[in-house]
C-alpha cells in the first residue's frame, strides 16, 4: 500500500510538472480591439518651414501591449490623424510619454496577465510564466525591489528589440524624428545602431529615433527617479544629459521629474540646446487637481498648498525653459488605464513668452507647436 501511494505521488507530481510546462509554453492568439481615435487639442503658430514639436498624449490600455503590432496600430492611427491635420513634415519632432516602452514587458504574455485585477496580480502571473528566467534574473538582481527588478531584467532583451523596431519603424515610416517616451532597461547602450542591454542596474531611459529609423545618440538616462521607481531604477549623473541634433534644431530630453531640477538644464545649456522634450507620467486618477505632495525630493521644502498641476506649471518646464536658450518645448503625459494604476497629467507646449495646456477631455490628444 505504501509503495502504491509512493508511485501515485510521483505520477501526480510528474503530471503536474508536464501540465505546468505546457501551460508555460501556451500563448493564445489575441484579437485587436481598441479605440484608435484622437483629436487635436491645439496647434500654436503657423508653418514657417522650421518644423514643429508634436506631442501625442495617448490613451493606452493593457490590451494595447499584447503585441508590438497592437501598439504599433494604435500609435500609427495617431500619426495618421496628425498627417491628416497637416502636422507631419521632415522637420517634425514627435514626443511620446514616459514609460510608454516599459509596458512592453507584457508583450506576448498569457491571458491571465491581461485579465489580472491589478498590477500585483499581473506580476505574479508574469513570474509564474517564466520560472527559470525569473530565477536567473533574481540572482542577477541589483535593485531593492527585487521582484520588480527581476521581471524587467528577464525580458530586457526582447523589450529593447521591440522598442527599437516599433519606434524606429514609426519614425522611418512617417519620415519624422520620434522621442520614444521612455523604457526601463538594464545598463542600456547603443552599439552600431542597435539598442543593447547589459548586466548592470536598471535605468529609466529615453531614445530618440531619426527619420531613417536609427537612434540619435545614446539612451538618455533619468537623473532623478520618482519615488515610485527609485526602488528598482538607478539614478544617472547630470553629466549623462545630452543634446542630439534633429532637422528642427538641437534637442534635449528630460524624463519626468528631471524637468523640475534647475541642475538638469545646465549640461543642456552648455551643449547649446534649442528644443526641449519632457516625456512624463503621473499615475493615479485625479491627481492633477489634487494637493501636491511636494515631489520631487529636492523641492519638498518649498511645498505648500499647490495642486499637482500648479506645481508642474510653477516648477517644471514652463518655469525652467526661460532660464535656457531653448526657444520651445513640450511635456507629454500618458493617459489610460494600465492594471489599475490610473493615469493623469495634462500635456503642455511651452515657448519663452507663452504656454498652453491640453484641456481635460476623453480620448487621445495631439498638441502641436510650430517653430
Number of domains: 1
CATH C-level name: Alpha Beta
The profile of the biggest β sheet is: 8 strands, mixed
Number of strands: 18
Overall pLDDT level: 84
Overall description:
This protein has a single domain (33-370), classed as Nitrilase/N-carbamoyl-D-aminoacid amidohydrolase. The protein has 10 helices and 18 strands. It has helices at residues 2-25, 68-84, 111-115, 119-129, 131-140, 146-154, 156-174, 262-270, 308-315, 317-320, and strands at 38-44, 52-57, 59-61, 92-95, 177-179, 183-186, 189-191, 194-196, 202-209, 215-221, 243-246, 249-253, 275-280, 328-333, 335-337, 348-351, 354-357, 364-370. The strands form 4 sheets. Strands 1, 2, 4, 5, 6, 9, 10 and 18 form an 8-stranded mixed sheet that branches. It has a 6-stranded mixed sheet with strand order 11-12-13-14-16-17, with no helix packed on it. Strand 11 and strand 12 (249-253) form a beta hairpin. It starts with a helix and ends with a strand. The model is unreliable at 9-27 (pLDDT under 50).
Amino acid at each position: 500500500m505504501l509503495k502504491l501511494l509512493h508511485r501515485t505521488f510521483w505520477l501526480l507530481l510528474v503530471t503536474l510538472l508536464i501540465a505546468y510546462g505546457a501551460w508555460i509554453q501556451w500563448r493564445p492568439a489575441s484579437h485587436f480591439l481598441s479605440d484608435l481615435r484622437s483629436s487635436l487639442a491645439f496647434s500654436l503658430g503657423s508653418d514657417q518651414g522650421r518644423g514643429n514639436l508634436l506631442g501625442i498624449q495617448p490613451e493606452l490600455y493593457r490590451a494595447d501591449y499584447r503585441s508590438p503590432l497592437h501598439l504599433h496600430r494604435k500609435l500609427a492611427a495617431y500619426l495618421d490623424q496628425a498627417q491628416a491635420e497637416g502636422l507631419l513634415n521632415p522637420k517634425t519632432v514627435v514626443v511620446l510619454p514616459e514609460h510608454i516602452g516599459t509596458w512592453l514587458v507584457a508583450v506576448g504574455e498569457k491571458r491571465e496577465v491581461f485579465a489580472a485585477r491589478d498590477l500585483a496580480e499581473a506580476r505574479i502571473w508574469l513570474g509564474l510564466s517564466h520560472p527559470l528566467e525569473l530565477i536567473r534574473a533574481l540572482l542577477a538582481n541589483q535593485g531593492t525591489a527585487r521582484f520588480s527588478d527581476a521581471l524587467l531584467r528577464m525580458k530586457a532583451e526582447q523589450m529593447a528589440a521591440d522598442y527599437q523596431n516599433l519606434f524606429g519603424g514609426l519614425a522611418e515610416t512617417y519620415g519624422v524624428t520620434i522621442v520614444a517616451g521612455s523604457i526601463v532597461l538594464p545598463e542600456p547602450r547603443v552599439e552600431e545602431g542597435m539598442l543593447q542591454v547589459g548586466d548592470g542596474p536598471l535605468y529609466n531611459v529615453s531614445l530618440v529615433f531619426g527619420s531613417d529609423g536609427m537612434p540619435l545618440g545614446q539612451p538618455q538616462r533619468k537623473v532623478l527617479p520618482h519615488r515610485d521607481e527609485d526602488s528598482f531604477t538607478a539614478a544617472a549623473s547630470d553629466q549623462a544629459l545630452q543634446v542630439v541634433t534633429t532637422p528642427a534644431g538641437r534637442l534635449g530630453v528630460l524624463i519626468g521629474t528631471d524637468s523640475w531640477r534647475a541642475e538638469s538644464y545646465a549640461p543642456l545649456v552648455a551643449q547649446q540646446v534649442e528644443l526641449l522634450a519632457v516625456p512624463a507620467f503621473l499615475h493615479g486618477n485625479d491627481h492633477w487637481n489634487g494637493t501636491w505632495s511636494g515631489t520631487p525630493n529636492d523641492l519638498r521644502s518649498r511645498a505648500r498648498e499647490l495642486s499637482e498641476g500648479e506645481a508642474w506649471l510653477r516648477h517644471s518646464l514652463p518655469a525652467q525653459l526661460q532660464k535656457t536658450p531653448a526657444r520651445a518645448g513640450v511635456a507629454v503625459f500618458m493617459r489610460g488605464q494600465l492594471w489599475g494604476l490610473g493615469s493623469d497629467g495634462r500635456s503642455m507646449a511651452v515657448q519663452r513668452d507663452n504656454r498652453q495646456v491640453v484641456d481635460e477631455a476623453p480620448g487621445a490628444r495631439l498638441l502641436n507647436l510650430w517653430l
